[in-house]
Design a protein that fits this description.
The protein is α+β, with helices and mostly antiparallel strands. It contains 4 helices and 6 strands; from the N terminus they run E-E-H-E-E-E-E-H-H-H. A 6-stranded antiparallel sheet has the order 3-4-5-1-2-6. The two termini are 28 Å apart.
Length: 184
């Protein structure tokens, strides 16, 4: 089963969100890297996942989305860069069957730019940083290019149709995502 999640960056003055379609079997660890791609960040800071409301369960990096998100009331908060406290609300929009000719994960809609990794809310409120961006399609396209790369180099089975030599070349790419150990 596939999920479409709305991921909204909270408290930045304008709507900044991404609609991401991904497998419900995705781990929270993989979701972290998907979100890094979706918000154009580089995994330089710690992150956490937690339930938006008090909950008896805790979330672990190895947990699967489907075990914790089953309806719109199951909201998850992803916090990145604890110093700046970039909080994102993650809400299930819909569940659906995967299409054979579609590569997942993918961004289907996006609104406005995310702040650069080390910017602050003050940069937004004082006008140093403007997150408004009219071409949502361009944002989604850029995110999908990054997600395609991430899919090949770090998530799941990667792209179909590549032979072993092509996989080796992709795996040896020096720009490949690496876990820097900064996760909480």
């Amino acid at each position: 089963m596939m999920f479409e999640l709305r991921i909204t960056l909270l408290d930045v003055g304008i709507p900044v969100w991404r609609d991401i379609q991904l497998d419900d079997d995705t781990t929270f660890s993989d979701l972290h890297f998907i979100l890094q791609s979706a918000f154009n960040w580089s995994d330089l800071h710690p992150h956490t996942f937690r339930f938006a409301q008090p909950h008896k369960d805790t979330l672990a990096e190895a947990d699967r989305l489907r075990d914790h998100i089953q309806g719109k009331d199951d909201k998850i908060i992803y916090t990145y860069n604890m110093e700046e406290n970039w909080e994102h609300e993650i809400v299930l929009q819909k569940a659906f069957e995967a299409k054979d000719d579609v590569l997942y994960p993918r961004c289907v809609r996006a609104e406005n730019l995310a702040p650069e990794e080390d910017h602050t809310r003050l940069d937004i409120t004082d006008g140093t940083l403007d997150l408004a961006y009219k071409d949502s399609g361009e944002i989604a396209k850029a995110i999908n290019e990054e997600l395609t790369y991430l899919n090949v180099s770090g998530l799941g089975e990667g792209l179909p149709g590549l032979d072993a030599d092509e996989w080796v070349a992709l795996d040896d790419d020096e720009d490949e995502w690496e876990d820097d150990g900064g996760h909480i």
